[in-house]
Amino acid sequence: MTAITRFEDIEAWKISRQLTNSVYAHTNQTGFNRDFGLRDQIRRASVSVMSNIAEGFESRTDIQFINFLGIARASAGEVRSQLYIALDQKYITEEQFKETFESAQTCARHISNFIKYLEANPRPRRISDDSTDYEA
Prior knowledge:
Elements: H1 11-27, H2 36-57, H3 62-88, H4 94-120
């Protein structure tokens, strides 16, 4: 396993970035772009996946990181739920639904596996900062 030194190295974050790009592409389509409530909510949920993975990685401990990963996984579930609404309202096609739903599901699976790894390999404390030379 390759060491992860930046949140951009995390596979779940990469997938969440693709998911967010798909969500933005779909919500820019005519019809979907006029449903401001759903459009904004599904965008916020997809961005939340990415953001919570990044924020958790930058946190001080693995306990905090796992907590943020749990929030990210929940947001991926929120995206999946909202995709059903978009499909039912005919804002997206069945193909767009399946592709984006699978991306959200894959992301959640990667997050779950990462949580399991962190729980099985606890480290008492970690910081993301490589440098310890600080000046006031």
